[in-house]
TrEMBL record:
Taxonomic source organism: Algoriphagus aquimarinus
UniProt xrefs under InterPro entries: ArsR-like_HTH, WH-like_DNA-bd_sf, WH_DNA-bd_sf
The protein's name: PaaX-like protein
Highest taxon, organism lineage: Bacteria
Gene3D superfamilies: Winged helix-like DNA-binding domain superfamily/Winged helix DNA-binding domain
Length: 168
């Protein structure tokens, strides 16, 4: 869906990153996260900033970007990204019911903006409700028409390549 509206894969990744959750990021971390060159990420960050969709601020010598919540189309773009992912409601429900979730990531194809039919998630937290996880795997397909695969980790290894959709 988004691929037909937005032709740049890097731009799609940035829109998914910034409009799926209150994420922020800086050039080098985004390039590493997306496995893209810093130049291609810089070009798209500049385009989205010039369009007013992103705002940036200096933190020391680093320029940090985030979605511009004051943009007239902020809500519409956020809704479009949520529909593309089909996971906004699902994520909220899973995180609420799983226990003490510290972070939740979407990884794999969806983190790259590709609708492959399978959503890969990583939940980080201690003593999470694994029985509920088995139950939700069955129900998820009925809700979002996508298979959901969830991995649980007790601690964040710090090198997860994906979109942080819950936590900080």
């Amino acid at each position: 869906m988004l691929e037909s509206l937005v032709t740049s894969k890097t731009r799609i990744k940035l829109l998914l990153k910034f409009f799926s959750h209150a994420n922020s990021g800086y050039l080098r971390s985004l390039a590493k996260e997306f496995d893209e060159s810093t130049n291609s990420v810089r070009v798209e960050l500049n385009r989205l900033t010039e369009a007013g969709l992103l705002v940036s601020q200096e933190e020391g010598k680093t320029k940090v970007y985030k979605a511009n919540e004051e943009h007239p189309f902020f809500t519409e773009i956020k809704n479009m990204v949520s529909k593309f992912l089909g996971l906004d409601d699902l994520m909220e429900r899973i995180v609420r019911r799983m226990g003490d979730v510290e972070k939740a990531y979407i990884v794999g194809d969806y983190a790259k903006g590709i609708d492959s039919g399978t959503v890969h998630m990583i939940l980080i937290g201690k003593e999470l409700d694994r029985e509920y996880l088995d139950f939700i795997r069955e129900k998820t397909y009925e809700k979002v028409l996508r298979k959901v695969e969830v991995s649980i980790m007790e601690t964040d290894p710090g090198d997860i390549q994906g979109i942080l959709v819950y936590g900080k």
